[in-house]
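Predicting holo structure, iron/sulfur cluster bound.
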Amino acid sequence: MDSISSFALLSPHSAADAVALLTTNPQAKLIAGGTDLMPNLRHGIGTPEQLIDLGGIAELGRIEHTGQGWLLGAGVTLAQLATRADVRVELPVLAQAAATVAGPGHRSVATLGGNLCLDTRCIFYNQSEWWRESNNFCLKRGGDVCHVAPQGKRCHAAWSGDLAPALIALGASIDILGPTGSRRLPLNDFYVDDGAKPLTLAVGELITAVRIPEPTSGMRCGYRKARIRGAIDFPLAGVAACLVGTQDGLTELRVALTGTNSRPFLLTGPEALCQQPVTPELLAALGKLVQKQVSPMRTTGTSAAYRRQVASVLAQRLLRELVEL
Ligand SMILES: Cc1cc2nc3c(=O)[nH]c(=O)nc-3n(C[C@H](O)[C@H](O)[C@H](O)COP(=O)(O)OP(=O)(O)OC[C@H]3O[C@@H](n4cnc5c(N)ncnc54)[C@H](O)[C@@H]3O)c2cc1C
Ligand code: SF4
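Done. Tokens:
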């Protein structure tokens, strides 16, 4: 890895102070666990003169569970989400997704906010600077051609975070704080399908918390992902699902995906599969819905066709497993 260019580390003690620092230094980068940001900086992807460390902001570490649902601070670590007994029992889909992120060392410092805001990934981009330079860089940074879709004008780098689909399937929203105050947004509306800029954060804004409504009584949820190395790897495709019902018919079904598009997203149309027996034909229909809405490109070492197929199969298996629970 290359060395990182020098920077000043700023250490605010409140989210409001972090916003003020970010507003006066718009080129600065927020750093939480640093497990996504630091490897990127080592690859020369960005040379910020200031890093704003969120690690000293106590309010970002909150975990609250009331009758209305959950509030999780952006600074909660993935290790906490993967191991806390209450999260594992009440929000198994979130605990399962958190447990699949990177390795135990990463999870002990990696945060919820960092996971929701990590950069998109591409085999032509997550490389050292000299490697990218020898390929004339690319559209996302430093160049004018996308090596994945050379005729196109947009970046197709893949969203590869594991937590967003779990939270989207749970119907979560996020609290965002910025120079003009705070706002709340459904998590599914936070992302756009643009590999170069998938987040809709304005200058000076940061995520302070995630809110998850209390799951419907009897709801069963789960997360499954395909990856190259089972012990530690980003998703080639990941599927989260939440459902209410039995083999004889579902009354609610939400499915969200990651790893295949430039954004995580809620699958459109699975409600048409409710109120009828869960048969092999219904599973196949879900698989088709997934195949139509994912759009993997040649951004990983694994073929786009495989990622499309594996997303579809994961969704079908997950639905079958949840119904049989
Ligand atoms: C070997 C390896 C394997 C990995 N495998 C996976 C994987 O399987 N799945 C996966 O999802 N990720 C994976 N990651 C990426 C990363 O470890 C996780 O996504 C992690 O959760 C990022 O959180 P962080 O706190 O370390 O983020 P940071 O690196 O600190 O930040 C990531 C980005 O989010 C921004 N940011 C951080 N907090 C906030 C906030 N509150 N508001 C707004 N912006 C914010 C930062 O400015 C930065 O741009 C892997 C990384 C490595 C090195
Ligand atoms: S998809 Fe294209 S523009 Fe985006 S990172 Fe990959 S090569 Fe670069």
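The longest strand covers residues 237-246.
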